[in-house]
What does this fold into?
Amino acid sequence: MSIPRLNWANHARDPEAFRATLGQTCRDTGFFLLEGHGLDPALIARVFDSAAQFFAQPEGAKRPLSIATNPHNRGWAYLGSESLDETSGQTDRKEAFNIGLDLPADDPRVIRGEPFRGVNLWPDLPGFRDTMLAYFDAALDLGTGLLRPIARDLGLPVHHFDASFDAPMATLRLLSYPAASGATGEIGAGAHTDYGALTLLMTDGAPGLQVRPRGGDWQDVPHVPGAFIVNIGDCLMRWTNDLYVSTPHRVLPPPRARQSVAFFLDPNPDALIDPLPGTGAPKYAAMTGAEYLHMRLSATYKL
It folds into this structure.
């Protein structure tokens, strides 16, 4: 099965046709390429450049920003610290850096210690913070924009999801995969499904990303320069009572060093993830967005 290609600009031209195509794609593959999204190519280039500068630093400069000491899913994940494939326990060969909703230390939610409401950790690199926050905001606008035709596809008011994503647990994740070493059983990122509602992924074009459609075999995800790779996450699959599909994917050890930038759109911590009306008898118990994300991260980091 080929990965569908959608153009966000078509949403303005013919919203009903776009909605129908998007809805069918969310049911069939849960994966698509999105062109015409409007994000500034110069901003995207700056994000990749800044990420490369961060990962090129010595470990001693990155260690103080470790995600292992941060309860809010922010900071640096060192090479070999994650196992996305919960079945095999295979260790991922990648580094990552997480940035969340940017809150000041005196924000009441931070002071109260609300889940996933912490301050971001920032490296001492010129322009890094401004670049990442500009990209975070642009990706958030695009992601919440996509949720509107999704709402219509599900028979809901167009702004149904707005209140659940106005202060989301979204994560901008910079990823760096070293070139394959040739070791037996090596993996860049183990087979997994994403945790949130939507993922917006931009890559540098290096191969490695594969997807396994339901009932199919692993296949390479094509690189379309400038296009986002978008996929449904488990949270939205749960919300739709399995009407939409969250599709397994993995990253094989790349032939050369590989960079990607993922934007994981998770809902607000207190958003109620309860099967939506009209999706049949509920298959899942209701839980909050924070409860669900903590459950999934615990498996990855063995908390």
Observations:
- Residues 128-153 form the longest helix (26 residues).
- The domain at 5-267 is CATH 2.60.120.330 (Jelly Rolls).
- The helical segments are 9-13, 15-28, 41-55, 59-62, 108-111, 128-153, 234-239, 289-301.
- The mean pLDDT is 95.
